[in-house]
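Case study B.
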Amino acid sequence: MSIEILLVALTTALATSMVGVFLVLRKLSMLTDAISHTILLGIVIAYYFVRDLHSPVLLIGATLMGVFTVYLIEGLIKVKNVNEGAAIGIVFTMLFSISVIIINTQFRNVHLDIPMVLLGNLEFTIFNRTTIGFLNLPTSLVVMLVVLLLNLALLSLFYKEIKLVSFDYALAGVLGFTPVILHYGMMTMVSLTAVAAFDAVGAILVIALMIGPPITALFFTRTLLKTLLLTAVIAVFNTVLGYQLSVLLDVTISGMIATVILFSFMTALVFAPDKGLISRLITLHSQKREVAFITFIQHVKNHQNTADAADELAKATIHTHLGWSETFMNKLIDKASKTGYIKLENDVIGLTDKGNDYYKRLRFNQ
Amino acid sequence: MKKMLVVIILVLTIVTLSACEENGDSDKLQVVATTTYVGELLKNIGGDLIEVEVLMGVGVDPHDYQPRQSDTQKIARADLLVINGLNLEEKMGEVFRNLDQEKVLVLGDHVDEADLLYEAGGEVDPHIWFNLDIWGHLALVVSERLADHLPEHGDTFAVRAEAYIKDLTMLDIYIRTRVEALPEENRVLVTAHDAFAYFGEAYGFEVHAIQGISTESEASIADINALAQLLVSLDIHKVFFETSIPQATVNALVEAAQALDHDVSVGGALYSDSLGAPEYGHETFLRTYRYNVDTIIDALME
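Model:
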């Protein structure tokens, strides 16, 4: 029984995180957040016609408004001077505030809000069931499975085209693809996936699932296929771990999964090889040492055989001229003598032949 | 790829582990109630013959209710689920409608249509527990339903329901005596959200609220100013908080009235969508209601 909740969570996680990869790559991460609010306008308009809070027409209105939202945003991005974030921000607030005003003026005393119509709870998904043939399954599971399969089918059919459009929009146009149609098609799928997932697991978890696993995966991979695969693995791992913790601590399942998503992102942020914070700090540190070394050699070259060499290049005073600490300086001098680039004569530093060659190579590279 | 394989195996192990469920059934009839009011009614009628689990705890606004992992188990395992209905439980109400109706009792469906109050927009007011006649009738409904499940204890339930209705009658008499002492022009109740219409209807109070029935609807500045004007014109000096609702809007109303040179203060906090807290000794319906009435009348008497 509780395994069914996990299955709903897993299919939702896979369906949403797959399309999430493209949202993240296209810098449209907050699109889902926008949809989660603008669908209220769809609900309000649908209610205006049917006047029934329990009518399925309200759900259709919400879905259509989700699609309309992404079209508006997509259209605005085409306008020069409007970037992705601004397009999302303006469409989101505009559509949402229109719905708030309509509710305030027309339906003041109607219990009209998104949770009433749409936003589901993982905890309750298993009580709303559908029978297909001899199988009796939670409705959300069936819906999310269909959405997942649809997403996977479209992804594998148009993989090349989607890849091209996601990474090089201009080239796609030159090669004769019509990126516009593909973009609108993809965004329609994003919207349908989002609205279906809202109903299954609630808005916050959908937003977390769409963005968290893809950005975590992007710390480790560079190719699209690997990103997609790793996203799926991370999404599944986060969902299962989050679910287990929610059982252990007896808390809300969606909240726990979203928390785990955050933590796994933070782990990647700090520990990922190459792109993680620690690895970047190490790179930064070694780069700093390298630049200092080059500066040191250059300094020796500049002052060698000049009148002030005895002062500028003396082992005891050189650090004051370069503005470094004595210990740091001594480390560099040690390193340079070990590699054989410098020699000491009466405690004055001078370049060896090998050091001169190194310097020439540096100049040449410049 | 190898790493991925390791992860997948790890995941599958956890999935299989999660398939094992604990089973802690007891012999008693397992009843799940949504709100504290419904839960308390059940405890009064069912007593030690049933085990009652309440999903929304004390002080929880039904609108903000977030189910926990174990709530699923409670609902799935319950022999009987009792809900307030009339949209109080929102989307969760839908969940209960999808369950086997043999196991579900929707109290709102058993209220006489003529007793229900509606908002101007046509939406039904779900705060039926504040009408003692309705609540007494629902005590009978609950006792009959429990008797269906435990026929051998049918008489016990019926006797308890009768006793409970007597308590409600005593409370009704108490309220009427107290209201009698309050000058008629002072019988105006201004609260954070529209939960006290049934109370107002029963005891002749004019009821005004900043928010509508749903705690989600937001009060506009115009709403608050209009209500402040009303306080001036009716010469009312007390407004009331509700324990399950943030106090910001009521404070805004107090300030708006003071800006009109009208002295308004907060008369106290009322229990609306949840029973009172045990630490104040208000954990039963009778005490909660009595506390509300005392708070309202003591404040308005001044």
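Residues 29-175 of chain B form a domain with the Rossmann fold fold (CATH 3.40.50.1980). The remaining cases will be described in the next quarterly update.
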